[in-house]
Amino acid sequence: MKDRTQMTSWTSLLALSFLFTFTTAPSASAQDKKPAAEPWKRQVFFGEQHLHTSASPDAFAFGTRNTADDAYRYAKGEPIKNAQTGEMIQKKTPYDWAAVTDHAEYLGMMPLLLDPQSPLQKTEIGKMIASGDPAQGEAAFQQIITSATINKPIDYLMDPKVMKSAWQKQVDAANQHYQPGKFTTLIAFEWSSQPNSKNLHHNVFFRDDTGPERIFSAFDSVHREDLWSYQEYQRKIGHENFSIPHNSNVSNSAMFALHTSSGNPIDRRWARRSARNSPAVEIVQTKGASETHPALSPNDEFASFESEFTHLLGSGGVLGLIDKSFVRNALIDGVGFQEMIGANPFKYGIVAGADSHIAASANEEFNYPGVHGNTDKTPVIRLGSKGSVAGEPALYFGTPGATGVWAPENTREAIFDGIARKETFGTSGPLIRVRFFGGWNYPKDLTSDNDFVKKAYDDGVAMGRDLPQKPEAAKAPTFAVWALKDPDSGNLDRIQIIKGWYDKRGYGFQKIYDVVWSDKDTRSIGEDGKLTPVGNTVDVKTASYSNDSIGSNQLHAVWTDPDFDPVQHAVYYARVIEIPTPRWSTYDAVKLGVEPPPNVPAAIQERAWTSPIWYTPDPSLVKRLDFYPGLQEKLPPSGGFHPGSLHPKK
Amino acid sequence: MIDRIKRLAREPLLHFLAIGACIYGAYALFGEKPEEASPETIRVTAGEVAWMADSWTTKWGRPPTEAELLGMIRQRVRETAYYREALAMGLDKDDVIIRRRLTQKLEFLTQDLATATPPSDEELKAYFDQHRDEYRAPDLITFTHVFLDPDKRGDATLDDAKAIKAQLVARGEDAARKGEALGDRFMLQNYYPERSQAEISKLFGSEFARSLFELEPGDWHGPVLSGYGTHLVFVHGLATAPDPEFTAVKQRVLQDWGTKKREEFNEKFTEGLLSGYEIIVELEDETGNIEEISVGMGKQNGKKHAASDVGEEAIFVSSEGKDK
Fold it and tell me: Would you place residue A641 in the very low, low, confident or very high pLDDT band (cuts 50, 70, 90)?
């Protein structure tokens, strides 16, 4: 109990000190830093920013014995042994960079509990595991996971010395595999806060080669304000860092709530701390897509992508409220906040990840080994109803996503700075490359120009930035977008630009524009505003598709916003959609010689999402409202979320 | 003759047998617990106490206190008593965990034996010569490509490729610098200096990368197909990595040699072990009949069984199924 008390007081002390240190928000955001020379020479580096190994207690309980070393070797393209099945698994296309983000809670503790030499084996849980009785072992694991879920740490598993050496192992593995110019690793961990089972998980990444001495877990605090205090302190002592939230889709509207952890309205200082500490958000991973939901975007025919996952993490409870759980809504509310309080708390760049718990970032749909070990390690288990995690059938998990970073070189600093600069995009797995620029004077044929990229940087901004100030003569912003398919995946169907804004009545809105598509001679936008679907070549009997008849290998367009209103705050991002290809479950069904499972789509349209570009009007043009109905907390239905319940008063 | 003895002395199997014989001999001479005066004594030796203190120190970063050490000793004594009692009651029989643990112990023992004698330089060198290609750094290609977009050109793509290739060939390497004007816009670069096949795979897909490395330098080639479309390629040069030097990769060779030796030894050891047994497996068919099957490890004769879950190669049927 002593450790716990110490830690809590340490946290509050830290929080207190920052109350005074940071009464004005730090102004030196990554955006203001001098851009590297010749930004048009930046290339895409694909990688993984969310991965668990045997050092995560839940992964260990799923039977994972592979370590950070295995995780980095797999990401590099080397074959590794899948600990659960004994099979060798290998990516077809290696990654350029990766970060292992094991849970900070009980990091590295499980292997020690199994070690007969460890004094931990003499503890109550240690004895259960040492008994060798599978039922007892299972119960022990469950006890550990539950204690993390309900945030009641088991004291004897919290020895600071052991924790420190476990963290050092993670740092060492990252450093061992870092080969500047060839393969980059980032030192990172996951802060796994889930008050009342509402997922608030953030991964924390460091720019330097030593990383922090001490990591921050949900046992320290479940409030993100305290995580930011930790981040700000680490930054102050030389460990530059950022955090990336994920699985907002299972946060029950906690992730992008319109209030702070203590239930107060978001103010300018809170918004600035949020934007500074969390410059990016994860838009898709194995536990589903967090872009949007059919209920929130009824006019978006692509909104239902990998949205079957409905349970709250660890609780077994079914997801209820979703309106503050999705990235698109957060981006829109963000511009509303920008108008209302002069700062945007949800100014996120876009990344994607695996959250795989078997140390393998398996983003290839045709090469899926599962993500949760014993619960989904073989096609039979994956397609059967038995396999489940957090009360969710394995069938509803998607393959991992991938992150592309535009960076001048493949080094720790360049990859870190690229994400901090938000010059990133996330994909649902395929290695689609996409550029997205915004400006006021782009010519109509810019993307056909051989000097396109240089001119786009010179006369505008890349994804992740604010549009330059509007010249008086300019009528509307123009965006240039260019996407290239993954050579090992489906052709491209279309590129869309999604716009979000706040209107004069104080409500948020969204609109989707199809800006360029394949097969122009047979497809057009109909009276209902919908583009003719691209078609479907997927043969479910063989889990195959054809690029010969539909889709494009690359698409590009210059698009001017036809509905622009210079007094409205707005946000724009691009979404690239592939032609339909088989879902992993269809590949599995063919392997087993059975019909594809009926409760998930047999074919999916994989996609990429760019980081947004924001428009902020000249303050003199905007008439700020007294009341923003779109930014008011709605009363929760009974039994649902309540603003006060996150932070119970003692 | 002396050489032969020397070689024999390095033979791991011999070591194993020799050690085995010694252990067996010791047991035969001194009974089950050679260090104990009588079975009623439990002696915790000074060595054991030191080992306990040591492992505590490595784990927790400080030596144990007296109380902690006494606790460990008490635990050790209790454990020994329980252990003997359990053995006496035969609790070690048919216990999954114990079977697995003992198997593991023997595996560790044999693995160590496989590489017990460090290899001589000549031995390593011979291994290195046999596997020279694995230690060679990858070849690096420098090339220019002209991309022809099938979306834009449709069915004419291949004809266009032929026509454009003729122009390029006429201009030779010179065209490689201005070639892009003849092709279509492409997001990736048109010129890549000194890239390995793995790097090209990441950019253009593995099929393109494979074909690329088969092209002769100094010429225009194509059409070469990728997942994107059609390419015409000029290879400026293919830098073959210099022959790997033994001294530079010796550490890696040593590791690989060890892995291979262990594999070989394990195989040999398992084979030798199993040759002393007749192995019979009972399998139940759909009708509930029990079929007796003898399982060999590849050397024994027998009729090959049809495809089976246990692995095709390893199953041999010695007798017809019979009712039980």
Answer: very low
Strands A570-578 and A492-502: antiparallel
Q: Which residue has better confidence, B272 or A558?
A: A558
Tens-digit pLDDT profile for residues A205-260: 999 999 999 999 999 999 999 999 999 999 999 999 999 999 999 998 899 999 99
Give the per-residue pLDDT at A232: 97
Predicted local distance difference test score (pLDDT) of residue B305: 38
Q: Which of A62, A146, A158 is nearest to A107 (CA)?
A: A158
CA distance A164 to chain B (A): 11
Q: Residue A487: which of B75, B96, B227 has the nearest Cβ? A: B227
Nearest-CA residue of chain B relative to A520? B151
So where are chain A's domains?
Answer: 2-16+55-425, 430-627
Q: Do A384 and A268 contact (CB within 8 A), yes or no?
A: no
Answer for the pair A398, A392: CB distance below 8 angstroms, yes or no.
no
CATH 3.40.225.10 fits B138-239, yes or no: no
* Interatomic CA distance for residues B107 and B99, integer angstroms: 12
CB contact (8 A) between residue B228 and residue A482 = no
Sign of CA dihedral A266, A270, A273, A278: negative
CA distance A466 to A474: 16
- What pTM does this model have? 0.78
Q: Which one of A554, A555, A556 makes the best mutation probe of the B interface by having the most chain B beta carbons within 10 Å?
A: A554
Q: Which two tokens stand for residue B253?
A: 């060779």
- Asked if A487 and B228 come within 8 Å (Cβ–Cβ), the reply is yes
**C-beta neighbour count of A470 within 10 angstroms:** 18
Q: Which two tokens stand for residue A14?
A: 């830290």
Closest partner residue to B187 among A161, A448, A554, by Cβ? A554
Nearest-CA distance from B181 to chain A in Å?
9
Residue A95 pLDDT level (bands cut at 50, 70, 90): very high
Contact present, A274 and A241 (Cβ < 8 Å): no
With bands split at pLDDT 50, 70 and 90, how would you rate the model's confidence at B304? very low
Q: Is the CB of A119 less than 8 angstroms away from the CB of B60?
A: yes
CA A37 to chain centre: 29
- The pLDDT > 70 percentage for chain A reads 90
Q: Classify the phi-psi angles of B94: left when phi > 0, otherwise alpha if psi is within -120 to 50, otherwise beta.
A: left
Residue A250, C-beta contacts closer than 8 angstroms, at least 6 positions apart: A199, A287, A288, A309, A311, A312, A313, A319, A325
How would DSSP label each residue in A56-69?
SHHHHHTT----HH
Residue A429 in this model has a pLDDT that exceeds 90 = yes
Task: Give contacts of B208 with chain A, Cβ < 8 Å.
Answer: 487
**Cross-chain Cβ contact A118/B150 below 8 Å:** no
Q: Is A450 on the interface with B (CB under 8 A)?
A: yes
Q: Measure the CA–CA gap between B284 and A97, rounded to whole angstroms.
A: 51
The model's pLDDT over A179-193, given as tens digits with 9 standing for 90+, comes to 999 999 999 999 999
Q: Backbone phi, then psi, for A436, in 5-degree steps?
A: -150, 120
Residue of A nearest to B64 (CA): A119
List, by residue range, all CATH 3.10.50.40 domains of chain B.
Answer: 138-239
Which of B55, B180, B198 lies nearest to residue A117, judging by beta carbons?
B55
Long-range contacts of A234-237 (CB under 8 A, 24+ apart): A234/A206, A236/A21
A386 pLDDT tier (thresholds 50, 70, 90): low
Paired strand residues for A245: A202
When scoring A87, A553, A556, A581 by the number of chain B Cβ atoms within 10 A, the one with the most, hence best to mutate, is A553
Question: pLDDT value at position B323?
Answer: 37
